């Protein structure tokens, strides 16, 4: 059996949770009954040791250095390795500890301008190419050296958040490299865990045009690609020569099932063993049914309406603050059965710079800040204040905003219902939302170059790297506008950029975190996003699945997961 994605428009926005669950239950019963009459249940042609993971959107081309989006990066994580990884064997309430990966150790010079990394020896890419210092340099050349024969402008733009600080990469021996920086960067090791900085086989980089590298995904990871139906399905076989030990699972199938109801049914009938970003409706349907267990890793993440700060009226900070006060985040939490936590500013729970604001410091003036105290103050739901701020902004109502939004995808199983709530809230203050829904991968591609004039923003989220203080830099730096970064709403504030510069170079951890909090306060007041919520991002795992720890990450350890 192969799943097919719906081709029609999304269901009616604003349907209540109970109404949404009814067809899910009914369809599940019908399908279960139909399957009961079959000689044997569909199994994707797998044996009992094959693990099937349901991906919540289309599987993109697997070029790690070009990717943006959890669906693709999770598959990349099985095929490739970065230089440094996080410890996913331990559950914590902060960012996971760092541990060696392709780099066995690293040290920084006293001026924080040079990082020297000792590389793991006797490692090969899954095509047999040796891993060494030259292969590391070639990967960095691809994203930073225009004269290199493997240079890729698209990948370079996607990786600018890292390479903008790297002056050059020096080979200091067969298994030693030095990253020479243009400015001190004390947080670089955690940034090197980003799965987009996974190392690609030099043979692939040299043999294929930039657009084709992702069609031949070869890394040093615990798995290798066996077969792919691009966009729909990827079959992985374990790398028995993996430096980190032979993975416990012989093979994995990642199947794109972008319709959340279909995915829930597949899990209920045993066709899918794991949903790594489950929606609230799927949790209600499947948890406690003697087939699946729910796990809450609760990684740092943010979901938001990113606004276009270049086009009217969202170029007006007062108007953007008004939008933040107009939205009832508690209603969104209720809709999702408290799967999400309201977010009032850019720093999520679990970020290393996050600190809970004292109750008496919350802003009520309409500025959105909290007096520079913690970086976590924000916007109370206050429609009257929202109307007052709109009047002060000079924006005449009624006014229409055009937004892009996913109709599915990781963390977006209730996207249409959430957008319906937001539409109702904004309509009460004279703002109409014209929402264009699209598949998640299409949304990422559409907004990737930055918002065009006439597009006022999009509903999106960020679930990777949000535990680091320099998450603020990736999202809000004035130097990381497309194509050099993901600040797709064109926000720029020189005061924020100065604080981020200071934080990046600050060796004292508490001082560095305070600088990030001050930057967060200013960003909150500028309101380049409508800050919405942080998702607990539950996983649904078959009772047959073992070896997954609820570490605060969107990733799992592919060496330990197993279908028993």
From TrEMBL:
Cellular component, GO, one term: ATP-binding cassette (ABC) transporter complex
Gene3D superfamilies per UniProt: Dipeptide-binding Protein, Domain 1, Dipeptide-binding Protein, Domain 3, Periplasmic binding protein-like II
Gene Ontology annotations of biological process type: peptide transport
Skewed-composition ranges (Gly residues): 366-378
Residues covered by the Solute-binding protein family domain: 98-476
Keywords, alphabetical: Signal, Transport
Pfam families: SBP_bac_5
MF (Gene Ontology): peptide transmembrane transporter activity
UniProt cross-references to CDD domains, sorted A to Z: PBP2_NikA_DppA_OppA_like_8 (cd08495)
Region (Disordered): 359-379
UniProt record similarity statement: Belongs to the bacterial solute-binding protein 5 family.
Name of this chain's protein: ABC transporter substrate-binding protein
Highest classification ranks of the organism: Bacteria, Bacillati, Actinomycetota, Actinomycetes, Kitasatosporales
């Amino acid at each position: 059996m192969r799943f097919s994605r719906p081709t029609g428009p999304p269901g009616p926005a604003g349907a209540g949770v109970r109404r949404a669950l009814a067809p899910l239950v009914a369809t599940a019963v019908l399908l279960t009954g139909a399957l009961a009459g079959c000689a044997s249940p569909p199994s994707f042609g797998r044996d009992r040791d094959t693990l099937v993971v349901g991906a919540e959107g289309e599987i993109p081309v697997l070029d790690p250095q070009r990717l943006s989006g959890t669906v693709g990066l999770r598959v990349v994580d099985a095929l490739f390795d970065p230089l440094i990884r996080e410890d996913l064997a331990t559950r914590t309430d902060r960012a996971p500890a760092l541990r060696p990966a392709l780099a066995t150790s690293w040290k920084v010079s006293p001026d924080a301008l040079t990082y020297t990394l000792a590389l793991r020896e006797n490692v090969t890419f899954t095509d047999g190419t040796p891993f060494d210092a030259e292969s590391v340099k070639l990967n960095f050349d691809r994203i930073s050296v225009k004269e290199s024969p493997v240079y890729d402008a698209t990948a370079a733009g996607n990786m600018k958040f890292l390479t903008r600080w790297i002056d050059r990469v020096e080979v200091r021996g067969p298994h030693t490299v030095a990253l020479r920086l243009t400015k001190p960067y004390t947080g670089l090791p955690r940034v090197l865990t980003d799965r987009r900085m996974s190392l690609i086989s030099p043979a692939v980089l040299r043999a294929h045009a930039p657009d084709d590298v992702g069609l031949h995904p070869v890394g040093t990871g615990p798995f290798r690609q066996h077969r792919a139906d691009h966009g729909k399905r990827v079959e992985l076989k374990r790398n028995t020569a993996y430096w980190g030990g032979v993975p416990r699972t012989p093979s994995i199938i990642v199947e794109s099932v972008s319709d959340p109801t279909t995915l829930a049914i597949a899990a209920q009938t045993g066709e899918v063993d794991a949903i790594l970003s489950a929606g609230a409706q799927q949790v209600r349907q499947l948890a406690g049914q003697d087939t699946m267990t729910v796990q809450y890793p609760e990684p740092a993440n943010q979901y938001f309406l990113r606004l276009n700060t270049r086009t009217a009226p969202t170029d007006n900070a007062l108007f953007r603050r008004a939008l933040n006060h107009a939205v009832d985040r508690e209603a969104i939490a209720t809709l999702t059965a408290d799967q999400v936590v309201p977010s009032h500013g850019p720093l999520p729970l679990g970020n290393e710079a996050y600190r809970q604001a004292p109750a008496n410091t919350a802003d009520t003036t309409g500025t959105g800040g909290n007096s520079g105290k913690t970086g976590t103050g924000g916007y109370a739901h206050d429609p009257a204040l929202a109307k007052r701020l709109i009047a002060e902004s000079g924006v005449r109502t009624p006014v229409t905003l055009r937004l892009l939004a996913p109709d599915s995808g990781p963390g977006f199983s209730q996207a249409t219902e959430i957008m319906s709530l937001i539409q109702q809230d904004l309509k009460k203050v004279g703002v109409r939302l014209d929402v264009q829904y699209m598949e998640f991968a299409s949304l990422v591609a559409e907004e990737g170059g930055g918002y065009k004039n006439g597009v006022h923003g999009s509903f999106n989220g960020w679930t990777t790297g949000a535990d680091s203080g320099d998450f603020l830099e990736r999202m809000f730096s004035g130097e990381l506008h497309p194509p050099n970064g993901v600040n797709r709403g064109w926000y720029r504030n020189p005061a924020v950029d100065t604080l981020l510069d200071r934080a990046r170079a600050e060796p004292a951890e508490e001082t560095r975190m305070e600088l990030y909090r001050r930057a967060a306060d200013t960003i909150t007041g500028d309101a380049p996003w409508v800050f919405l919520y942080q998702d607990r991002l539950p996983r649904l795992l078959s009772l047959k699945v073992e070896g997954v720890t609820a570490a605060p990450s969107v990733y799992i350890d592919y060496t330990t997961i197993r279908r028993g």
